[in-house]
Design goal:
Elements: H1 11-19, H2 43-59, E1 62-63, E2 69-70, H3 73-78, E3 82-84, H4 92-96, H5 105-127, H6 131-152, E4 155-156, E5 171-172, H7 174-192, H8 200-203, H9 211-228, H10 238-246, E6 257-259, H11 272-277, E7 290-292, H12 294-301, H13 308-311, E8 351-354, H14 356-368, H15 376-391, H16 396-406, H17 419-433, H18 439-449, H19 483-487
Length: 503
Amino acid sequence: MKKIQIRFLFTALVFSAMFAACNKDYLDVNKDPNRPTDENITPELLFTQAATAAGFRTIGTVVGGEGAKTDLQFAQNWVGYMGGTGDFAVEQIETTYNIDFAFGDVPWQRDYGVLFDLYLTKTKALANDNKVLAGAAMIISAKMFQELADTYGDIPYSQAFQTETYKRPAYDKAEDIYVSLQASLDSAISYMQETAPASFATVDVVNHGDQDMWIKFANTLKLRMLIRQSEVPGFTPTAEIAKIEANGGVIGAGESISVNPGFNNAQAKQSPFYGNYGFTPTGNKAAGGYAPNNYILSLLLNYNDPRTDRFFTTAGGFFVGSDYGLVTGNPTQSQASYFGPGVARSADQDQWLIPSFEGMFFEAEAIARGWMAGDARAAYEAAVTESFVWLGVEDAANEAALYMTDNEIATWDNAGATVAEQADFIALQKYIALTTIDPREAWADERRLHFLPDGFISNNPGRIGNSLPLRLLYPQSEYTTNNENVSAVGDIDQFTTKIFWQP
């Protein structure tokens, strides 16, 4: 365990330099039209690349060379979805949970880098009276700021990116950020109800100009934040639920939120998940050092889950996984299963931001909690069925029905009578449905509900805890430039310093 004093290295300073231009009026006649400046970088150009980058941030960006992993690989491993094959040395810091202030540096910097571009998009779009584009940027920003707050707790938010006014931005409390994000999403929904310029459908690589889907995306994020706070004593979501229902509800069957600017099977142009966990343009495994974790394989195989071969491939006719954190006994690359065609479909596949079934699981839990009207059982069964459809299971509806009839962990009759029991039951099936797809959501649910069966903890005998870290420590890049503000957060410990919504 490490307790540290932190500082904030303001990411926007780096990016601001990219947009700074020399003001030499006497040379105006010789301006280079090919040189990027703040004047010719339009909000439309910014939005397309920022939305695409947000897709990369959903599953992480590759770091390193041979045997490289994404900067969010820890989440896949921690929650029991993936593990090393033994082809490369076990990552000691990650598998022992002995994380330090450098561990979360890269994801922090990359998330804030994308958020800066989204901030510029919103600012420029509003200056051009393009409220619809500004709203789209605000919605994606809300998703990413929530994920940052869920990972690190208090973070720079209200003063972020305003470098001329705030050279050393303050850290906002995570609970205040949640309140502000709800208000920001309300504004974004209002903007989305305006008439969009003709250019919006062209630059919208997420919902292709469908403003109703953007509103559902915003509502789904609003509900995700409410669900996250379900264990906070005295929490009352009534007012926010009313807004969600009044504005069209959350995403449903066939309504995944994804991004695709034109991914293809060329170097650096593949869809993010496929590029990280599928195959390179030359046909080699992109993540040969990783395999399915035996923890998730046991949950799938013990209950004859028809989705197993959509999540993972077989090796020699069998599903072969790895024990996370264990060196001895892990299969080599050629002996391990790999990532299957339900998640690693093709180089040009859409990159999900929130898959349809995830939003449906949020709704099922909200109904079970009495927050929304409806039949919790029907909503739950629809979410499970949509997972089968989304993954491409043959005869999906019938297979899902059989799965929910034959298995004790899936049939609603075993969901229990209390809200807590039903929430845990739904969360477990959401966890299985999200296998390799959204590990940060699974990590958040485990921290919120502690619902997972035993067995997902690292096998590394040197681990310093018997439970998952509750958060990441502030990154190393936060040490020197904003010490006064960040020190006000107080000492941070990965096992004891909770995010505000954790029980």
